[in-house]
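In this supplementary section we document a worked example of the pipeline. Step one takes a protein sequence of length 629 as its only input; no multiple sequence alignment statistics are reported here. Step two produces a three-dimensional model, which step three serialises into structure tokens for compact storage. The input and output of this example are shown verbatim.
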Amino acid sequence: MAATQSAEWKAVCEKFRLAQELSEVESKKDPENNPFRSKYKARDLLKEIRCSLKKIEIEEEVSNEADCESGQVVDEGLENDAGKACAGDSPAGLRSARIAVLEYHLGVNHIETEELSAGEQHLMTCMKLIDKCTTTRENVSLYIQARNQLGILWAGRDEIEKAQGYLEIAESMYLLYMKEDGQPPMDLEDFFVPEGEELSQQEKTRRFEMAYTHTLYYLAQVYKNLQQYERAGQYCHTTLQRQLEYKQFVPLEWAINAATLSQYYITKTCFMEARHCLAAASIIATLAGEIPSEAAAKESEAESERREELLQKRAEIARCWIKYCLNLLQDAKKLLEDNIGELDLDRQDELKRAHRNEEDDKEKGRKSAILFGSSDTFDSICSLEEKVSSVFPLDFDEARAIFLVGQSYVAQAKEYFAMDGHVTDHIEILQDHSALFKVLAFFEQDLERRCKMHKRRVDMMEPICKDLNAQYYLLICRQLQFELAETYYEMMDLKLAVAERLDQLDVHTIKKFNHLCSSSMKYYQMFLDSIRSPEGKFPEKLEDDVLRPALVARFRIARLQSKLISSHLPTQLENLTLSLESYKFVVQYCEENPESRKAVETELELSEEMVSLLPLKINRIQSKIVTST
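The serialised model returned by step three reads:
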């Protein structure tokens, strides 16, 4: 092999450097009509280097044969390429390792130019060249990176288990090397630099750890695809920790990944972990810089794109915070409610006595394992965490503190996801805001104040529902109609509870109560009408997605109709008759479609009862009318 300081070797190294620059830098500037121009040029250079190494190998073999003839001994351990790659200190072994590096880069090049079979072939050749010596300081980084690429390749072909095999071996190889050696291994660039220009030990370590971080990241995706969500969450968390530790991250990308991970933790009711992810996401997102002003965005396309990206990502993180607050409140509600959905005061007292110490102990035990951040960000992350609890609220004041945090993020999210241009997202945020008020009302024991909270829900949803075009947004319209109907229904129940405490109802109270009943019926009926065919016919058989909502709507219309207050007997008769018709609809539908009974067991039982009782009440009113005339 030519000496590493020779002109010939320096030319090889320069060619390799140029190939890397073409592939990683110049390729980003390639025109749309020739997107792989620089990649192809890089490939040609890599092939030229490989030919140069092969030529040198042939020359040395001829020289060795001449040495044999003159009585010199040839090292039989370098008989094949796989053996040569282990002998990192020998010229032949080093040359074979270099060829393996070239095969790796050619494999990546072919994959990046969408020639997957050729890419796979080059990567497999690389693996064969170093197969017998994978944990040496010369080869371990190359081996891990080659397996990473093969893992990505097979995952892209939906061969997830095959990808899993490559990546898990890469992981075990890293762990084995760190246990047996642990010194910074050779980086792929080290094989093609003039003597004295090798990477520093610190840079070698950084690059090796980056390769392993990629292994963990790809494994997280694999486990997610295999629906091994707990393992996927663990690997994703470790990946994020390592990216911060080794400063190998793009702030916005890292922040979105951390915020996404928080949503997994929420599903597992791991709110401390979810909060830490979100706090870290918010802090790391600020490292992406200040949001350009509108004036700057108008003057520069680049600034406009940057402004758009920053606003969008920060709004997405805000939405994750909303989900955090909402789910924390909703899970606390499940813990505290009785069998009719009201606050169980005995349960509340019991939890207050035991819950706090228990949660504090759990938090201390788990906290150290999940921490993100370096010394310059850790304090900021902890400070943001302290602004919202991660334990279940047990009374109104605790719930309100969480609600207010969620509401502040609603305001942030709506700034970007405005109705103009982001209709679906904007309405989803409004629905979450409404849900925050709904769950907060659960903790409020004053019935009038609870009613006002539901009124806030109506005020935010009703204008949207009226203006939205049902032709384009049918599903959203149905959701809003049903939620508005339910909200008015809850307000009616609250007003009914208040009225039952009074000796006599005044005209204003009766009018208000009837208005709530009518409004709820109106929106339930709008929902039911949306299910009709274009000709106005109600379906004989309901689709699964609307089966329960439709039957519940008819059941509640029946109840609301019977609750309307009137001193006028004919009006009472009309209301009860209409109520009976709706109860009969529910019963008859379930008789004709027995499989639907499970969806509305409680409502069906009550409907059957009312179908037998209401005719008696109707008859009594009819008798009074006859008598009065």
